[in-house]
Structure prediction request, 287 residues.
Amino acid sequence: MSNLAPLPYRIIALDLDGTLTNSQKIITSRTFEALMSAQREGVRLVLASGRPTFGIASLANQLRLAEFGGFVLSYNGGRIIDWHNKTTIYSQTVPTDLIADLYRFAEEAKLPIVTYLPEVILASRNEGDYLEEEARINGMPIVVAKDFVAEASQIKGGSTKFLIPGDPHLLLLLETAIKEALSDRMEVFRSAPYFLELPPKGIDKAQSLQRLLKHINLEREDLLAFGDGFNDLSMLQFAGTGVAMNNAVDEVKAIADFITASNDEDGIAQALEQFRFLAQSKITEAL
Prediction:
């Protein structure tokens, strides 16, 4: 690899589940080494996920983002953190007057709704495999609120997002209903078929990446992005180059500039190696 050209990008945004991590939720050694090599060249990494900050921290530390000047976009971009000094660059919260409406929608569908404290998941009820999956992914315990609306409304600094986990067919109907009622005041989309994301208006990965690039004086052409889920659509469309994993949903593959191997086949590492070859070929042709 030392004989190849450096990557033609200055910043790489990475979705986590289904993209950076494999099916066992770990970063493989090949992908890890490819990303460390990029950072040693001066490329900055951004971990962009629907996860809360706590659920991203271990991966950010594993990749040594603090040392190399990387960033964390948690809550689908509702919070942007400079991981070097742990300062918050940007944060937006859901208006408290919407919480009762969101709770009502979840209750009528007989589904839990959750939000996040620094190290625990605050839930209206502890039911279902999909809620257990959210807790497992983030390594956070579930605490059931006695009065969800009241407790969520009193979270210090506000709630950066809400999430309704549940059966994909139920969530499809619920997504439509909430959009019809509240889309003028908040975003409504799924990060996975079984996770309905409810962040503030104007929050998605693309819009927060745009905020970050402005903050660090880079252009979208400098940005390479990898993703697989519905909540990665805007990010891949916004990036100078958007790469879909082979395990991505069809909608993401359809808008991507490139499709790489799956998250279980080191798709990120394979793509980075290919981009190096392409850059080297251009240099060779110019000689």
